[in-house]
Amino acid sequence: MAMIEVKDLSKVYGQGSAAVTALKDVSLSIQKGQFVAVMGPSGCGKSTLLHLIGGLDRPNNGSVSIDGKDISKMDDTKLTEMRRRQMGFIFQFYNLIPVLSAEENAALPLILDGMKPEQARVKAREWLDRNQMGDRLTHRPDQLSGGQQQRVAISRALVADPIIILADEPTGNLDSRASDEIAGVLRNIVTKWGHTVLMVTHDPRITAYADRIIFLKDGQIVDDTLLDGGKAENARRLKEKVEQL
Amino acid sequence: MSVRHTLLGLLAKEPRYGYELRASFMALAGGAQNWEVKPAQVYTTLNRLVEAGLITRSAPDGGGDEKVVYQIAQAGQAELEKWLGEGSLSDPQQDAFFLKLMLSLELPEVDAMRLIQTQRAALYQELHRITTLRGELDPHRELARILLMDKAVMHLEADLRWLDMIEARLDEVKKQPVPRPELRPRGRPSGK
C-alpha cells in the first residue's frame, strides 16, 4: 500500500469566468521511504498539491489517502488531529520562537500536545543530534545561521514521529551551500530513518537529492521520473501488473 | 589535444613508462570512470609525439615494449609551454539536444515539448548521479575531484535553466522560419 495515494484530484479557485483551475485530475502514489520532489513553473499547481495532501485545503474533486486513510472525507477535528500527529511540515521560513532555545523550539509540538517537558526535551535532543545540531541545543534562533535554524525547524517537524514530511521550498531562503546541507539532511531522514518526504521546490540543486521528480504544468503531471533511472509511471504500472498476476 | 599535451606535461616532470603515463593521466583527469583512455590511444599518441620530435623513447637492452621509457625533448617543452599559455574554451555550441529540437520544427511527428521533458528528466538523473558521487568523496583528500564535479553540477544547472527558457519561448520559435541553406544550382542532370 502506498503511503500517499492521490486520485483524480482537482482544485478550482474562484467561480464562473474568474475560475482558475489549479489542479486537474491529478493521480499519483508515493511509497513509504521515498523522497519525492515536485517541480514546475510558478502557478503550475505544485503548492496546491502539497496543501491538499497536507490537509491544509480541500479539493473540489478526487481524494487524498495517507497511510490508507482518506483525509478528504475527514471532518475538521479529525483532520487537524491527523495533521498534528502524523504530518510534519517544513517551510521556507523557519518560524522559530525567538525567546526559546533550539531544544525548546524543537520540543514545542510535544509539550503543546501534553507531553512532560523533560520527556519532550529528550525527544527533541535526539532529532537535533541526528540533524547535527547537538552542540547548539541552548542557542536561540538569533544566534543561529539560516541553515541551522532550518535544521531546528526540521527537528521540530520530526519530533512527533510523523508518517509523512511535507516541505514547501525548504531552501527558498538559504544560500547554495546551506541549501545543499539542508537537502542532505532531508536525504538522511529518508535513507537513514525511513521517513517519506514530499518536497516542493524550484531549485534543481536540491532536487538532485530526491529519489523521484514529479513535473507539474498547468495543473497536470507532465512527467514523473525516477532519478536513479527509469520512469516512475512505468515502474508503478509494472508493479500493478505483477500484483494482478 | 588535451591528452597529448597532458602526457607532455607528465613527462616534463620525469621520464616514465607508457603504462605509468596512462595511469597518471587518468588519476589527474578525475579517475578512470571520469575519463578513461585506452592503452592503444596512449601508445598511438606517444608514437606521434616521438615522430613529431616532441619526446624521445629509450629502451634498455633486451626490454620489450613495456620497458620503453619516454622522455620529453626540448621541442616538447616548448610545445607544452605554448599550450599552458593559451586559454582553453570548450565548445557548448555543438549541442545534440539542440539538433533534435531543430528537427522537431521540420518533422511534424516529433513533439518538441516531449523532447524538452525527456531532456529535462535526463539532466535531473545526471544531476542526481553526480550529486551522489560527490557526496561520497572526502573533502579533506579529494577536493580537486569535488571541484571537477561542481563544474558538472553547474553546467547541468545551466542546461536546466536553458531548457526552461526554450520551453517559455517555444511558441515564438515555432512561428519563425526554420533556418535553411541557400542552395545554389549545381548543374545537376535535369532529368531529361
Task: Provide an overview of this structure.
The complex is a heterodimer of chains A (245) and B (192). In chain A, the strands form two sheets. Chain A has a six-stranded mixed β-sheet, sandwiched between helices. In chain A, strands 2-1-4-5 form a four-stranded antiparallel β-sheet, covered by helices on one side. The model of chain A has no long low-confidence stretch (mean pLDDT 92). Chain A has one domain: Rossmann fold (3-Layer(aba) Sandwich), CATH 3.40.50.300. Chain A has 245 residues and is an alpha/beta fold. In chain A, strand 9 and strand 10 form a beta hairpin. Chain A has eight helices and ten strands. Chain B has 192 residues and is mostly helical. Chain B folds into two domains: 83 residues, Arc Repressor Mutant, subunit A (Orthogonal Bundle), CATH 1.10.10; 80 residues. Helices cover 60% and strands 5% of the residues of chain B. Chain B has seven helices and three strands; from the N terminus they run αβααββαααα. The mean pLDDT of chain B is 90. At the A-B interface, helix 7 and strand 10 of A face helix 6 and helix 7 of B.
What's the layout of helices and strands?
The complex is a heterodimer of chains A (245) and B (192).
Chain A: E1 4-13, E2 20-30, E3 35-39, H1 46-53, E4 61-66, E5 69-70, H2 76-86, E6 87-90, H3 102-112, H4 117-130, H5 146-158, E7 164-168, H6 176-191, E8 196-200, H7 204-207, E9 212-217, E10 220-226, H8 232-244
Helix pairs in contact in A: 3-4, 3-5, 5-6
Chain B: H1 2-13, E1 16-17, H2 18-28, H3 39-51, E2 55-58, E3 69-72, H4 74-84, H5 96-106, H6 112-135, H7 143-175
Antiparallel strand pairs in B: 1-3, 2-3
Helix pairs in contact in B: 1-2, 1-4, 2-3, 5-6, 6-7
